[in-house]
Structures are given as structure tokens and as C-alpha cells.
């Protein structure tokens, strides 16, 4: 009974999300994108994303009550923040729609349908922005409202039309954008990071539709003489804030996710080469000099180059017959072909190191084996070196003469 008697506005106030939180997330998204935007400034799609994120930051900065009051005081016009904020919101949702059309169809798509759709969006939403300012100039809204302007002036001539216009324009853009995104999510061949980014964008625009619905219900209630202002003042703002967070993460996830994935892949490859690198260091007596400011890609390249440089002269000591027997032995022990090749190569390299220790200079007439596959598969060989027991088993079996193996089998 206590829960039923609780005022919804009091309940929702517990879940208030400061507008500065989505502003911070959007700013972080812009900062993450900024290096790519500067480096690839000629790419209109990246410029559009940067402009969109900047516009989204502006929406939440100027829609914060403290900023609304400051703008009203600075201009000396009560509620002039209303058309300014409505214009920013309208421009943002129109820009989102343009970006999704361009992003999905690709910059190379110059079809008549795409050009017509883009012209339609630009003309309609530019017209809406102009109409918002005209309606504000015609309206009489002398009392400043920082949080509840939508419902307070819901029945005031011209302000009523202005509020309805921006909400409908926002809802239409979000509905179309959301549908385009969810249709795109179901397309074949999407990168996993892009798919998840689109899902977050789609969820963000669905929340935007909830924001519009709550605002419209509250405004319509005023028209009917009812009071549902808490929907507009307490429910809509946190929904908008959560929506902005999802949209910001949706924009940065494909870029940041792929970046982190590539970094992880490079670091993993660098770490996997460590056993073979340590083995080659024991042969050459030196290693790759450590450079503090070297990028992960450069460190990986240097490690790969060092391993191959040591393997090339060592190849003259490799026993090709032992390599073939090791491969057959690994297959006989149940290892798959790829792993069997890596184990055989590891056995050959270890044997070559011992042979070099016994005779540093092989005969001049000795022709080294073809090392093309060995140099290309250093990652697999290095992983095989992490399994010394398997290597010893294969080596012991390969050391048995072929006749003895046949007899035992």
C-alpha cells in the first residue's frame, strides 16, 4: 500500500542522471575519434561523426538547467534557451539521420534515391529550425522555466505549436533512424564490433522514442486539463541521458573495439614468440635492444626479424631426414598435421642447435634445407616449444631407425 501511495515523481527522482554524465561520455567519444578525424580529415564520414558528437555535447551542455539560466540571463530574453535547445536537438536528430543514410549506403553511393533522401532531410529539418524561431518570436512566454517549460507552456499559443513541432520532428527522425539501424544489424557480413555498435545505437534511439513519448503524453495531458508533468520533468531527462550514453558508446565501439582487438592480437603474437625468441638468444648470445617508446607493432616486427635472422644461418645445420621422421612420428602420436609440422620444426631446430655446438662450420658443400615454411610458421613453432614433453616424445620416436619402428608397429 505504501508503494502504491508513493508519488511517481519522488520515486523517479532517485534515478536522476546528471546531464554532465552523458556530456562526459560524448566528449570522451569525441576525443577517441579526434586523432582519426585529424589524420583523415578529407574523409567526410569521419568529419560527420565528429560534428555529430560535438553537436550532441552541445545539446546536453545547453539543456542543463544552469546553462539555460545563464543563456537567458546573458541575452536578457526569458526562455530564449527554448528555441536554441530545440534547434540543437532538431539539428542533432537530422544529422543522425543523414549520417546513417551515408554510413549505410557508403560514400560512393550517388544514386538518385540517396541524394533525394539527403536533400529531403536537410530541407525538412532546416525548415523546422527556422519555424521554431518564428514560433518563439510570435509566442508570449515571459516567465522563465528551467525544468518544466514544455508542460508549463503546453497550452500557450505558438509555444504550444513550437513544443509539438520539435517533439514530432525528433520522434520522426528517431523512428526512421532506428528502423534503418535495426535493418542494418540484420545484414550479412557485418564486423562483430560494428554489429554491436549498431545494436547500442539502435537501443539509444529506441530510448529516444521513449523520451518523445513521455514528453508528448505529458503535453497532451495538459491539453486535457490533467497533470502528468512528472513524466516530462522526472522521467524524460534520465531517459535522454541514458540514450545519449548508449549512442556515444555505439559510435565509438566499432573504432575502439577494433583498435583494442588489434592491440591485443599484436601483444599476443609478441608473447607467443617469446619461447622461440629466448631460444634464438641463446644461440646468438644477444637479443633485440629494448626501446621504451617503441610501439607494440614495432616490437613484434623486431622480434620476428631477429628470430628469422638467427634461423637463416642455423638452417645449414638442420637435418631434413630428422624433420621428416619427426613429422611422421608426431602424426603417429595423434597430433593434427599443423601441430605435427610445428613439433617437427621444433625438434629440427633443437637438433640444429646441438649440431652447431659440435661443429660450428658445416662442410662448404652442405646445402641447407628449404626454410620458407619454417620462417613463415615461427609462431606455431614457438607455441610448440611451450610443450617440451611432446617435443621429447616426438624426438625420441623420430630417433628410432625406420626398421625398428616398422617392427614395433
UniProtKB/TrEMBL annotation:
Keyword Transmembrane helix in record: yes
Alphabetized UniProt keyword annotations: Membrane, Transmembrane, Transmembrane helix
Pfam families: DUF6545
InterPro entries associated with the record: DUF6545 (IPR046675), MAB_1171c-like (IPR050039)
Keyword Manganese: no
Transmembrane segment boundaries: 15-32, 44-68, 80-100, 120-139, 163-182, 203-223, 235-257
Domain DUF6545: 263-384
Name of the protein: DUF6545 domain-containing protein
